[in-house]
Amino acid sequence: MEQVGAIIAVASGKGGVGKSTTAVNLAFALQHLGLRIGLLDADIYGPSVAMMLGVSEGTKPKTHERQYFYPIEVGGIKTMSMGYLVTERTPMVWRGPMAGGALTQMLEQTLWGELDILLVDMPPGTGDIQLTLSQKAKLAGAVIVTTPQDIALLDAKKAIEMFNKVAVPVLGLVENMSVHICSACGHQEPIFGHLGGAKMAEDYNVPLLASLPLTLAIRESGDQGLPVVMSHPNSKESVLYIEAADAMLRALNKTETPSAPTVQFSDE
């Protein structure tokens, strides 16, 4: 971990908002900007990074001295995921401490090499994994992913408040599914709500890094294991991700990374 620069969590309050899609495409967007990038899939119970990167089932990371993992590289991105260690049909029937222990092992026992940024694709919620990462890693910041829908924004607020409590700066918001674009006629309709992410970003005084449309290109590329920024770097969708990565870097440069994030409890 001594060779890893900034560690940034990509998080959400609830599932289904496109967090993993955002994490994977942000990784390639940052690489497009010239940085050395790693990606850790911290979703122990539902890892999806392996599929989104097109890593075939059965691919296992090589080990060193029976203690360390070599990350699996995809398109120059160094990655590690529980999806590399189990099959698609293996449920992780673990209690919180076991999941936290697995995350710690993947984080600290992977030979990441020299990285400018390590992105961590977090599981949804504000539970054990989030607290474990806040305690074990010196997080430089967090990116919160949401949709404009009120129920998603409600949970996204909890994610922001959680990172505030553990002294991790929120670098910005990414709003997915901001508008649906009809592939037949081009009509645009905000089916999940309008300007919800912008309003929340204003309320919390954090940047809105991107408002991404609900398009087939983003969904199909992820299902095919060819993230849109990697497979179609000049597409409209990729440009939005690259602009989001650039805005995230500007926010990161304005923050001072806490020397040792700690978990604090109160009676509130």
What is the CA-based Rg, rounded?
A: 18 Å
Q: Strand portion, in percent?
A: 15-25%
> What about the largest sheet?
8 strands, mixed
Give the % helix: 25-40%
Question: Total number of β-strand segments?
Answer: 12
Strand order of the largest sheet: 5-6-2-7-1-8-9-12
Low-confidence stretches: none
CATH topology: Rossmann fold
Structure characteristics:
alpha/beta; Rossmann fold; eight-stranded mixed sheet; 9 helices
A few lines on this structure:
The chain has nine helices and twelve strands. It is an alpha/beta fold.
Report on the structure:
The chain is an alpha/beta fold and 268 residues long. The protein has a single domain (4-253), classed as Rossmann fold, CATH 3.40.50.300. The chain has 9 helices and 12 strands. The chain has helices at residues 19-32, 49-52, 96-108, 128-136, 150-165, 196-204, 216-223, 228-231, 236-253; strands at 4-11, 37-41, 63-64, 68-69, 72-74, 77-81, 115-121, 139-146, 170-175, 180-181, 188-189, 208-211. It has an 8-stranded mixed beta sheet, sandwiched between helices. A two-stranded antiparallel sheet has the order 3-4. It has a two-stranded antiparallel sheet with strand order 10-11. Helix 1 packs across helix 9 and helix 3 packs parallel to helix 4 (128-136). The longest helix has 18 residues, at 236-253. The two termini are 35 Å apart. The model has no long low-confidence stretch (mean pLDDT 88).
